[in-house]
Amino acid sequence: MPGDRSIAIEGIAKHSKQIALPTAGEIWAALRGEAAQVVAEDEMLRSFMDFAVLSHDDFASALAALLAWKIADDRMPHERLETLHRSVAADEPAIVAAAVVDLVAIRTRDPAAASYLIPFLYYKGFHALQWHRVGHWLWRNRRRHSAHFLQSRVSESFAVDIHPAAQIGRGIFIDHGTGVVIGETAVVGDDVSMLHEVTLGGTGKQHGDRHPKVRDGVLLAAGAKILGNIEIGRSSKVGAGSVVLRDVPPRTTVAGVPARIVGGGRDAVPALEMDQSLPELDYCI
Questions:
Q1: What is the DSSP annotation of 198-236?
Q2: What is the pLDDT of residues 156-171, one digit of tens each?
Q3: Could you tell me the sign of the dihedral formed by the alpha carbons of 147, 189, 197, 178, in that order?
Q4: Are 271 and 191 in contact (CB under 8 A)?
Q5: Domain 179-274 fold
Q6: DSSP 3-state of 135
Q7: Which of these, 215, 251, 252, lies nearest to 230 by C-alpha position?
Q8: What pLDDT is attached to residue 22?
Q9: How are the residues of the chain apportioned to helix, strand and coil, as percentages rounded to the nearest 5?
Q10: In what order do the strands lie in the sheet with 243-244?
Q11: Cβ proximity of 29 and 23 under 8 Å
């Protein structure tokens, strides 16, 4: 987990040529304004908007309550999970700071995210990642069974399975989320985007450090399988459905089963562009 830094959106801004991105306070104001507008348009959602946003004083409080509600059950009630999230976030404020950066990443990259409110309330990739940050804190603080419990509940609730030991940066966009698997020794840098059914897995025959290292700015398209202790270089792209078994150089596009280099040399950051298309290739049908 990256160290505590300003909640200013540094992670995305270091790659982006856009104007300055919003602060946490501005995002919280936007969330409240968007929630109030929803209530004005659809009275049926008043109670939910009050619970999720309007009854809270700040982003951290709303996030803890919402995430707890998403995975609570009879054996692990909402109140206990909310208290857990609040206490962990108080010990490590970078957890909430990272959630802010992740939310901005989604709003910036996903054309379906017409507001901050939609991904905050409804995107399970975002929710799974925020619980992973708590689980990673538990793992590092030797609360291993609690960390595994969270991993299990998140997997059951969101169909996203991230081992609590995995190291994940900020500005992460997990689009759709369903079927994403990230193994124990995987490392994911900042400003990475991945789609559904991405796997950062082992080969099944190794122990120890056995999972991929995905560097900053990488785009992992739908269904990409990255297997083994290999490196996906900075600002690279892995095509949909590809199986990657070897290192990928920086600023390179790979695709296929097994994956091979099909493009490269561009200055663009694929994770920010979210373009899953590939260079013109010869296909056999």
A1: -EEE--SS--SS-S-EE-TT-EE-TT-EEESS-EE-TT-
A2: 999 999 999 999 999 9
A3: positive
A4: yes
A5: UDP N-Acetylglucosamine Acyltransferase; domain 1 (2.160.10)
A6: helix
A7: 215
A8: 77
A9: 40, 15, 45
A10: 161-162, 181-182, 199-201, 225-227, 243-244
A11: no
Q: Residue written as tokens 């290192």?
A: 247
| Cα four-point dihedral sign 178, 183, 189, 190 | positive
Q: Which residue has the tokens 């991945």?
A: 194
Please give the structure tokens belonging to residue 120. 């905050």
Residue 193's identity, in one-letter code, is S
Specify the amino acid at residue 60: A
DSSP-derived secondary structure letter, 248: B
- pLDDT band of residue 264 (cuts 50, 70, 90) is confident
Q: Which residues have C-beta within 8 Å of that of residue 5, sequence separation ≥ 6?
A: 94, 97
Enter the pTM of the model. 0.90
Fold exhibited by the domain 1-159: serine acetyltransferase, domain 1 (1.10.3130)
Do 1-159 and 179-274 show the same overall fold? no
Q: Where are the domains of the chain?
A: 1-159, 179-274
CA distances to 52, 65, 97, 150, 209 from 48, in Å:
6, 12, 24, 24, 43
Tell me how crowded residue 92 is: count the other CB atoms within 10 A of its CB.
19
**Reading across the β-sheet that carries 213-214, which strands appear in turn?**
167-168, 187-188, 213-214, 231-232
Place of tokens 């908007």: 49
Amino acid at site 73: D
